[in-house]
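Chain A, query sequence.
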Amino acid sequence: MDFDISSILKNWNFESGPILARRFIGTDGKEKVQLRVDLGLLQMNVNGRPDGRRFNGFETVFDLLKAKLQDYTTAHGGDDDGFVLSPEECAKLHQEAIQYHQRYVCLLHMEDYDRVIRDTKRNLKLFEFVDQYADSDELAWSLNQYRPQLLLMQVRASGELRLRSKNHAEAIKLVEQGLARIKSFFESLERPDLIDQSDEIHQLELWLEELREKRPLTEKEQLEQKMAAAVEREDYEQAAEMRDAIRELGKSNANH
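Chain A, predicted structure.
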């Protein structure tokens, strides 16, 4: 077996800065994504656990440990009090979360927004699981510290999907909600000072400003602009027509 991947890397030069990723169908018939890094490449399955491993019949370590929790609560009359994730289990969950993170970074670059949302939702549930059951606050924080970055990815994907359907207003709303969630996270840590330092917040604020500038005008706003322009050039007849059209539009919207 030839283990040397030099020929593959030679035909796919690494460049610092932009994300270099591609997708293809593997010899096993499964869709895969590759990420070019400086010393080689990472290859991941598009669906399921990125590395394709299974754990005692479960697709992921997270699924295995959720089943362990279910067995515990069943044995304790539905009570999860006393269930604790060991440092080793937290380490395995951390490693698994990184795999999903690497994949949804690639998928966002490829504009596969539905799968980005799928993977970020999954990792968020994993963060919450570790936060609730980790053996120590330090173990919980080892994952929870990535929550702002995860929320940024999720908001970007969700917002881009709304833009695809020409729903700028909903995209703006999602970004505003995402900003509020990240700020709330820092406030829950009693570290509001981190809000001004957060790169995730800065990126979303810039995108929000861009979305607001490019938001298509509503029918009412278009009429108001035309009326203002008519008044400015002293075309009061057209201004009156625009005023009447705005009133009729208001009545129509009220009836609906």
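The mean pLDDT is 92. The two ends are 70 Å apart (CA to CA).
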